[in-house]
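Task 17 of the worksheet. Students: predict the tertiary structure of the chain below and write it out as structure tokens. Keep your answer in the requested format; marks are given for formatting as well as content.
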Amino acid sequence: MDHFNGLTPAEAERLALLCEELGEAQQAIGKILRHGYESTHPDGGPTNREALEREIGDVYAAAQMLEDAGDIDQPRVEAWRECKLVNVAQYVHHQAI
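Model answer:
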């Protein structure tokens, strides 16, 4: 029997991976907002900046898996990225876009 959402197990797994990685990136961003880029856990470890870089790399990897599987179309993603840069320019106050 097909799943109600029509996703294959592989498609659902790739989306779950992306969701998890996005959540981890959000957590890293929250730590930076609370404690700064160069702060580390009291027990040591990477800086918050390094943690964010790692998590963004993980997000990129998960997105690459979606692209490689044909779940998303990279030229369309790139077009939306460019559109976002144009549209957000009117709302940001501290960025050179």
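Marker's comment: The chain is about 65% helix and 0% strand. The radius of gyration is 17 Å.
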